[in-house]
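Example record

One chain of 94 residues, shown exactly as stored in the release files.
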Amino acid sequence: MRALDTRRGIRHFKKFIIMSNNVHIDGSTRIGTIGGAMLVTLLNIRHNDFIRIIGFAALGATVSFFVSLFWKWMVKRAAARRIKKGRPSSGDPG
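Predicted structure tokens for this chain:
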């Protein structure tokens, strides 16, 4: 009995997938749906939350910038050490 139910479920799932491939949603419907979701989200955020969001975004961007500078410095330092020891850097052939 269970095998029969599983097969029926698989057939139903395949039929659903085939049917869902034929569904076409216009760009205007997508834009309207996304725009509506964003509007509702923005309207539900309080004034204090906007300030907090802006602060966290600025903090995240600053941290990301300095981490990128740190990694750039580390890569240059490692390359300089390789050259100093007489080993070619990983990008050089030979």
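Notes: The chain has a mean pLDDT of 78.
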